[in-house]
Known about the structure:
Number of helices of chain A: 3
Oligomer: homodimer
Amino acid sequence: MLNTDDVEREEVTAANTEFYRAFGAGDFSAMDALWAHKSDVVCIHPGWPPVSGRANVMASWIGILSNPPEPAVQNAEECIYLMGEAAMVVCFETIGEMILTATNLFVREERVWRMVHHHAGVTEHRPRSAIQIPSGSLH
Amino acid sequence: MLNTDDVEREEVTAANTEFYRAFGAGDFSAMDALWAHKSDVVCIHPGWPPVSGRANVMASWIGILSNPPEPAVQNAEECIYLMGEAAMVVCFETIGEMILTATNLFVREERVWRMVHHHAGVTEHRPRSAIQIPSGSLH
């Protein structure tokens, strides 16, 4: 029988999976639905400054999803962190040969996990290399 | 008189400020103290894969703080997000001419806000440009 944490991990994993499905499919309606409606939201797309406020975040997704990356983004190696009413997913994203790391944050709104933050940036490290700590990096 | 949210914002801002003070000063002892001791921790340094687990995260900081960036990292334009027992700071970092964006996540451990995640990556956008949504970016 699953305990509460197991159930929450499955729920958060499902919310994260739905984010990447909507992203990859260019499904703006689903993307709009999965972001929080009551909590403040913010988004850091790769190389961008932070975009804050629901209207600005959704405007950024309209632009991105009108011409979604090809091949479609895929997520890998999700790690789930539960923090009461908030939950975080750290994972890799791949877009063809391009590899990114992502932090996705969710909060509960009326029992449903909704996204409040997405932060992604490029890396040269492939999934399954996460244990190795690179040397000579700046920061 | 400050309400609870105001007090929490001040506490989280102080924890974030202490993170950048320790980082800039190469103060590993302070850096070690401010990361969570009980909760799972993870860190995405710029361009790195996720580093997970306290021992690995601290090993990464020993490497970085043994030769900290010059000039010292500075933080700017902190935005605080309160989520019950978790709190997030999204901010800019500057290291001389280099500009980065960061997501810093904290949880309460025995009433003290401790860091559980740091994710930083480079951007070409300067602080105070955050309202402008760039066009033509991939994602």
